[in-house]
């Protein structure tokens, strides 16, 4: 994509939304994020925008987002163990549309009946040469040759709800893993509800997701620079767009050691 595309076509302008308390800041959630080595490294920032968003213009939207002065002034990246301003100019944004259709947690029901969990929700341990506390949940999440890899179906694994669950389960570099799945499920539900917008059909009463979720990687002249310079599954950034309210949330995490303030 040309770096100046959003300068010549219909452009988007962004403005930070007033800060509101999110589930990431709730006492119980913050305690779990600290245990999972994610506290101070995971964040959600919300902005309004001034033009209609359509799925076909998602690439332009993402590029304009990362070039907008109101956004750039808030962006931070990790350098030498601290959040630093992102001082480099973004010239390209890679965008991956992420499936987001789920309005309940029943996606995770198969985990309770396939041997990954006991009837009480405790995670079954398994042997690993390197990790003595390895378990069948992390095995299912990470190893494609695991017998349980598709306990949750191939399409469902691509859902944002499942991706969020996986991010929390794998945690940060010094993650202390849970013995029971309940904290993962509960925290996934809270954060998902915070990030995703839904609507109810007045006739059918059916609830559906209206948000568009985009996984993004921003590049400067030297290559990939945001949300990190290195390829790391546990470093991620998503743009979550509510096209009706014209709101977008940047949800991201930077993998590493230590907690620090933005």
The number of strands is: 11
Task: Give the biggest beta sheet.
Answer: 7 strands, antiparallel
Mean pLDDT: 90
Q: Radius of gyration from the CA trace? A: 19 Å
How would you describe what is shown here?
This protein is α+β, with helices and mostly antiparallel strands and 262 residues long. The protein is 24% helix and 23% strand. It has 8 helices and 11 strands. The chain has helices at residues 5-8, 27-35, 58-67, 69-72, 136-142, 154-157, 160-170, 182-195; strands spanning 14-16, 42-49, 76-79, 82-85, 92-98, 198-200, 207-209, 212-220, 223-226, 236-242, 247-253. The strands form 3 sheets. Strands 1, 2, 5, 8, 9, 10 and 11 form a 7-stranded antiparallel β-sheet that branches. A two-stranded antiparallel sheet has the order 3-4. The protein has a two-stranded antiparallel ribbon with strand order 6-7. Helix 7 (160-170) crosses helix 8 (182-195). The radius of gyration is 19 Å and the shape is globular. The two termini are 31 Å apart.
Which features characterize this protein?
alpha+beta, 23% strand, single chain, 262 residues, 11 strands, seven-stranded antiparallel beta sheet, two-stranded antiparallel sheet
């Amino acid at each position: 994509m040309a770096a100046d595309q959003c300068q010549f076509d219909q452009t988007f302008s962004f403005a930070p939304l007033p800060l509101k308390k999110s589930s990431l800041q709730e006492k119980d959630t913050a305690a779990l994020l600290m245990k999972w080595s994610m506290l101070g490294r995971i964040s959600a920032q919300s902005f309004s925008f001034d033009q209609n968003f359509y799925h076909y213009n998602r690439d332009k939207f993402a590029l304009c987002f990362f070039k907008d002065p109101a956004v750039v002034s808030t962006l931070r990246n990790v350098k030498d163990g601290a959040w630093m301003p992102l001082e480099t100019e973004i010239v390209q944004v890679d965008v991956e549309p992420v499936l987001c259709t789920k309005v309940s947690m029943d996606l995770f029901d198969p985990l309770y009946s396939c041997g990954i969990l006991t009837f009480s929700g405790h995670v079954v341990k398994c042997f690993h040469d390197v990790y003595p506390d390895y378990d069948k949940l992390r095995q299912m999440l990470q190893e494609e040759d695991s017998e349980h890899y598709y306990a949750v179906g191939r399409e469902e694994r691509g859902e944002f709800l499942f991706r969020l669950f996986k991010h929390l389960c794998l945690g940060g570099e010094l993650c202390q893993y849970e013995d029971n799945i309940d904290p993962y499920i509960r925290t996934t539900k809270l954060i998902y509800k915070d990030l995703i917008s839904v609507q109810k059909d007045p006739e059918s009463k059916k609830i559906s997701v209206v948000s568009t979720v985009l996984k993004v990687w921003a590049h400067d002249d030297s290559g990939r620079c945001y949300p990190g310079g290195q390829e790391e599954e546990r470093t991620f950034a998503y743009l979550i767009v509510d096209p009706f309210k014209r709101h977008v949330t940047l949800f991201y995490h930077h993998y590493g050691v230590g907690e620090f303030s933005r």
